[in-house]
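Hey, resending since the last one bounced:
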Amino acid sequence: MRAGTRVAAGVACAAALAALTAVPAQAHGPEQRAPHWELKDSGTPDVRFRGLSAVSRTTAWVSGTQGTVLRTTDGGASWRNVSPPGASDLQFRDIEAFDARRAVVLAIGEGEASRVYRTEDGGATWTESFRNTDARAFYDCLTFLDRRHGLAMSDPVDGKFRILSTNDGGRSWKVLPNDGMPAALEGEAGFAASGQCLVSSGPKDVWLATGGAAHARVLHSSDRGLTWTATDTPIPAGDPAKGVFALAFRDRTHGLAVGGDYRADQASPQAGAVTGDGGRSWQPAATPPPAYRSGVAWLPHSRTAALAVGPTGTDLTTDGGRTWRTVDTGSYDTVDCTPDLGCWAAGEKGRVARLES
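The structure tokens again:
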């Protein structure tokens, strides 16, 4: 993309984000269309995308059911199917991309269904860099702190969450010792709903979201997964379908948590929480998202604005997560924003969208 085109795109998106955060949706007249999700035809209506990694306004990767991985480099105008061969039985619930050529994707499931693949050529070829051989493990999410250091998390094994680590960009992985991991609560697990149950900020800080137990917790590590502390959140749990489904941190201290009850016929009160101390304590949102939300992302270059998404809509906060209002009713499972002012969302029926003005 030419420099002038990049600048124009950035200016346009900046204007869209400014309008979205400054003006209530109903205030836009018919002559001025409010910022909105614009669907991009992925050509895969039978695939559900819960994995999303936005590289820029033009480049994004999505991953989902039937072993599907897609990539766009033209803002969603066209998508290339770059799925690993022989993976049609796998569910790719999380993907982390470094650029248009390099990405790491996680398949979830019991035993050998949990795998990690890596590409260095835009998905033309893939290398399987990890296959789980422990029938008790079930990997849910992965995150990268930089281009070399990454972690993946499994539901508890022997009473503790299991952490997988790489220090070579995902080429090789090892299970970390669990001495520094607190004991899991009875019934506690992670949710492989959006690739956001394990997130990071900076070179060493990582947070892990849980549900299913008596309390929905967030675990924090400040040493790349070696030692952890656990904190209760006000998001309801106490059922295998309830808890914290997604986290987002804009720095080491300011974070958001969203979740609820993923069953469509169940209400999700207190579906949002906020922290200003790195996750040592969590406060309930004064006006939480009105329903279950599975994904959340801070808007680029904003200290107070973020988007949360779920099957029944998208919500916006402009006060750091204290209050939320619905701005779209389309179904999305995950959301991601980029420093060049690009925001993407993905979900069921092959839905992929980019925020437009």
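Helices lie at 3-22.

Sorry for the duplicate.
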